[in-house]
Amino acid sequence: MLDILSFLPHKRKQTNSGWISFNAVCCTHNGESQDKRGRGGVILSNTDDWSYHCFNCNFKTRFQLGKPVSVNTRKLLGWLGVSTVEIDWLSLESLRHRGLGDLASERNEESKIISANITFNKVQLPNGSRNIRSTDCRFVDYLAGRGLKYNQYNFMITPNGKFRNKNRIIIPYTHGGVIVGYTSRFLDNNLPKYLNEQQPGYIFGLDLQKSNWKYVIVVEGVLDAISINGMAVLHNKISDKQAKQLMRLAQEKEVIVVPDHDKAGKKLVDDAVKYGFSVSTPLWGNDIKDVNDAVLVNGKIATILDIITHRNNGVKSKLAIKLKLRKKFERI
Known about the structure:
alpha+beta; Dna Topoisomerase Vi A Subunit, Chain: A, domain 2; 2 domains; 30% helix
């Protein structure tokens, strides 16, 4: 874990109660005069957990192993000189240490949808749709082969359907908790593998986002999105209506577009650059073609970290981004 003490000012002292006091770094950022009286303090709870309190501007925050890095903790670490990459790593690494109780509470936590100021018509799922059960071995095994659990999302099936319909997994699209479309993923060997019931402008996964998340990761496919709690445009292009929603999100969060590692992915890169979004093409092996493949090989947390650390948000020239990514796609 990150050693908070190594980032504190050299001029500091430890009190009898265990607080390490120093000139607070938060005051000027919170509209107060610069602290010169050592009013900032950090106290360690154990090897990794710590709390911060400024007795001048009353800014408080804490870090607890197993929890995401909060907005205030991100601010404090930034003021102390910790890089964005290190803060992102700390947040993701912390999540590796979540306990079973934390995981259960996260699953039950209601996602806060970010308003996109757009509406869609309610859609009925196919007749006979029901949730996948643990005893539906064929469907459970398929999802497990994609690194997903059958109860990880509201996956559904129509086992009594006719012809191909009895061999499909239905992935409902929701917007504000209302079903507005769905994807059918057929498990037979016929084409097409996927059929989408998608309304213009819809982006899958908006309901999966949390209001306190710093990044919005946008991919092509629905299973890629579910693998990392991201969003999917459900194609290799970003439509004008989808772009308007993403640009609205970009006012508060960084939008990172991750194309599939194939020639068709270049179209998504062009659209991302056109609309000013960050682009990420992590250095995955040639056997990894998309985000879901990466999760299978590297795990969810490592995949998200790869995406964040390899994003091209710092490149000012659109042409420079394209040139930087061209060699990667030329190898395909």
